[in-house]
Design a protein that fits this description.
The chain has 494 residues and is α+β, with helices and mostly antiparallel strands. Among the domains are: 178 residues, no CATH class; 154 residues, no CATH class. Strands 2, 6, 7, 8, 9 and 10 form a six-stranded antiparallel sheet that branches. The chain has a two-stranded antiparallel sheet with strand order 1-3. It binds adenosine monophosphate and magnesium ion.
């Protein structure tokens, strides 16, 4: 074996650990007894400067599972607090995860490499620090699907089995997920800094994330107000994108909301089939706090918690600071709404200037909800009506007459637009996915994976990684679950 194949020579940086020592604990990963790769994301590896062959070799597998720590790497468990289902937990932190280090890609962008399931840390409380294969594969697949849908997200570089069983309700194969994100700084990281360290620590954390994620804020008269503004914008855009594909995060606690504007922590998440704003899949979300339709309001609530931590930096005078923060956080709903409407108009092929656009979006969603029509299928089918090659989603409605009335109005709006129908239909197809990680397909793939057969998982991963292009012969992947499936419940994924 060449030296390139045996040693993934990557230099890790540890900027976070150096700048924010109080917000992390140096810690070593547990040694898995018999690590073996289940999934390797070669394309992502290449973007980060890894050689795929080297990652598949023994040193690569050791790096991806924590069996060995790369030279120069200073792994840390990151501290954070968080509101979980509305209740404040002052000390959460990476109980079973480690920040291995930061990588700089060819463009100079900084990425965290994190291991999840790499053993109990000082933040583990009663947890075992381990992860089961199913939930790590789930995080891998949903993250890749989100990325392919154009939605900012952490991504799996690899999933490996550890060769060890983990005890959940039954014994399950243990696994480690190696994931990459622009950073893992959360609203909960700011909450921890505020309660443990006070304004000076919050300022250092804020300076760190401004430099990393929101650099234009540094030039503003009030950089911390500009940081809040920039995070609000990033989250308004992120949540609108979730909503436009029917994604339900399931556990939008403040410790699971990033400052970078990426989606992280795929636990009980799932995609909605039939359109219904009340949809909840998570078995522990009894109050329906994190239902599909609540996500924008919950994001605003979480961002208010973020703003709370910044108050001492916004102005010397407390009342002035509260006034500034209140006004800015109050703009979230409108900003979210603008992003949502913009995206939905594009999904319906309507121009920004179309006066009936918002009404058409709203009325279509009401029809979908009333007739329990699949959100993804209905939206994707619209373009065939624009091309004149099909009836659109008509056949999916129990009462097609109601759809026909809507479609007549929609066609009238399309006719008001300049430009070519084919170009409009193509643009719609680039916005309306055919393939999302359907719950029944994902469960089927994970069940096979849990007994060692990864073929269905690999196939599903392949399909959701290219969600806008039809694959003849794969129609089953584009259809909602059969009526025999469900009611579907998801679990927190430990
Ligand atoms: P999550 O619900 O995945 O966002 O995790 C919430 C908190 O529980 C975080 O502090 C995790 O690190 C911690 N946690 C979850 N599962 C485990 C586990 N098996 N061992 C230790 N800590 C865990
Ligand atoms: Mg979490």
């Amino acid at each position: 074996m060449s030296s390139a194949a045996s040693a993934p020579r990557i230099a890790f940086d540890d900027l976070y650990a150096r700048e924010l020592d109080e917000l992390c604990v140096s810690w070593q990963p547990a040694t898995p007894p018999a690590p073996q790769l289940a999934v390797l994301n070669e394309r992502l590896g290449a973007e980060l400067g890894f050689d795929a062959e080297a990652l598949r070799g023994p040193d690569g597998v050791a790096l991806l599972t924590g069996a060995a720590v790369a030279a120069g790497s200073n792994p840390v468990a990151q501290a954070y607090a968080g509101h979980q289902f509305g209740f404040y937990a002052p000390s959460l932190g990476d109980g079973r995860a480690l920040l291995v280090g930061e990588l700089l890609d060819a463009r100079g962008a900084r990425w965290d490499l994190h291991l999840k399931g790499s053993g109990a840390t000082p933040f583990a409380r009663s947890g075992d620090g381990k992860a089961a294969l199913g939930p790590m594969l789930r995080e891998c697949l949903v993250g890749e699907a989100m990325h392919a849908l154009g939605i900012p997200t952490s991504r799996a570089l690899a999933v490996a089995v550890t060769g060890e069983a983990v005890a959940r309700e039954t014994l399950l194969p243990g696994a480690v997920l190696a994931r990459v994100a622009a950073s893992h700084v959360r609203v909960g990281t700011f909450q921890y800094a505020a309660t443990r360290g006070g304004p000076e620590l919050v300022r250092r954390l804020a300076d760190h994330v401004i430099a990393r994620h929101h650099p234009t804020a540094a030039e503003a008269d009030n950089p911390y107000l500009a940081l809040l503004d920039s995070v609000l914008a990033a989250q308004a855009s992120l949540i609108a994108r979730w909503m436009q594909v029917g994604f339900i995060h399931g556990v939008m606690n403040t410790d699971n909301m990033t400052i970078s504007g990426e989606t992280i922590d795929y636990g009980p998440c799932a995609f909605m089939d039939a359109f219904d704003p009340d949809t909840v899949f998570s078995s522990i979300d009894h109050g329906r706090r994190y239902a599909y339709g609540n996500q924008p309001a919950i994001a605003a609530w979480n961002l208010t918690r973020f703003a709370d931590t910044l108050l001492p930096l916004l102005d010397e005078d407390y009342d002035t600071a509260v006034g500034l923060a209140t006004e800015l956080v109050g703009s979230f709903a409108g900003r979210y709404d603008a992003r949502w409407r913009e995206g939905m108009r594009a999904k319906l092929g309507l121009a920004d200037t179309e006066p009936d656009a918002d009404g058409l979006v709203e009325d279509l969603l009401t029809l979908l909800r009333d007739q329990r029509v699949d959100f993804t299928c209905a939206l994707r089918a619209l373009s065939s009506a624009v091309r004149g090659t099909g009836p659109g989603p008509r056949s999916r409605f129990d009462d097609p007459a109601a759809y026909d009335r809507w479609a007549e109005r929609w066609q009238a709006a399309l006719a008001r637009e300049p430009g070519d129908a084919i170009a409009v239909a193509d643009a719609m197809d680039a916005r309306n996915p055919i393939y999302i990680p359907r719950n029944h397909l994902l469960e089927e793939a994970l069940a096979a994976a849990s007994v060692g057969d990864l073929a269905a998982f690999a196939e599903l991963l392949h399909i959701v990684s290219d969600p806008f292009v039809a694959r003849p012969g794969h129609e089953r992947y584009a259809e909602p679950a059969p009526d025999t499936f469900g009611p579907y419940q998801t679990f927190c994924g430990t």
